[in-house]
Amino acid sequence: MATISENIQQLHGRIQRACLQASRPVHSVTLLVVTKTFGADDVRQAFDAGERRFGENYVQEGVDKMAALADLRDRTEWHLIGPLQSNKTRVVAERFDWVHTVDRLKIAQRLSDQRPPHLPPLQVCLQVNISGEATKSGLAPAEVADVARAVAALPGLRLRGLMAIPEPAATLDGQRVPHRALATLLAALNRDGLALDTLSMGMSADMDAAILEGATLVRVGSAIFGARPRPVT
Ligand SMILES: *Cc1c(COP(=O)(O)O)cnc(C)c1O
Question: Residues with Cβ within 6 A of ligand 1?
Answer without folding.
Answer: 34, 36, 57, 81, 165, 203-205, 219-223
